[in-house]
Structures are given as structure tokens and as C-alpha cells.
Amino acid sequence: MTAGEEIHSGACLCGAVRYRVAGPLEPVVGCHCTMCRKQTGHFLASTSVAMEDLVIEGPDSLRWYASSDFARRGFCGVCGSVLFWQSDKRSRIAIAMGGFDGPTGVTWDKHIFVADKGDYYEIEGDAPIFDRRRPKGADA
Prior knowledge:
The chain is mostly beta strands. It contains one helix and ten strands. It has one helix at residues 34-40; strands spanning 7-11, 18-22, 28-31, 44-50, 54-57, 62-65, 71-76, 82-87, 92-96, 108-112. The longest helix is centred in the N-terminal third of the chain and has 7 residues, at 34-40. The two termini are 28 Å apart. The mean pLDDT is 91.
């Protein structure tokens, strides 16, 4: 991390896993897939960052769960806080928005996998909604 970079920090609930991001945060994606809902108890709101912009402190407390054949989910092994989602095919990592220490300045980009969303809530706001992932070739 170099001087003058925007730095965002965050942690799990108990503080055993902390992280810092130097560089831009992508707009927020709400994932309503069944796996995200089961892991979080609602849906996952996350940003994404380049792996080289992320520094994890307390990696001994970080646990990874291979939730599919292409991705894993990172959580605190002490308090269970949901922290990360990482695809095997991307050089970026998703970070749960609730763990950031302060304001991030990011806004909603889209909601994905809404075909799997819970029946007890409605999606509000103007962010685009996709039944699954964003269709290939779709604009922002």
C-alpha cells in the first residue's frame, strides 16, 4: 500500500480477523442465491476488490469453506462472521459490506440470483435485478 491511496478497513465481529483494502471498492452487489442466504441468514451484500489490494490480518483465525466446485467462502473461525467470497476463476475477492469499519462511499450496482430470494422481503431501490447472474454481454 502506498501513500495517498484510499484505505478501507474492516473486521469480523470479534476482531480476530481484520483486513485492509488499498484501492477502489466496486459498487455493491446483493446476491440472493440459496447459498448466500443460508450462510448469512438473509442475502449477501458485498463489494469486490483486486486480490493484490487486500491485506488480511489474523489469517490463522480465517477459515475457508469450499461451497461449490468453483468458489469458497471465508469466515472467522472464532465468531463465525461472514467475510469473503472468492471464485477460483477471478483475480478479485468479494468482501461482505457489513464488516467495514466506516463509510465506504459505494452504492448499489445490482441484485443477482433474485429467482432464489426469500419470500419474506421485497427488493427496493433502482438497482438492476437479475434472476440469475447478469447476462453475458449486458451493460453495467
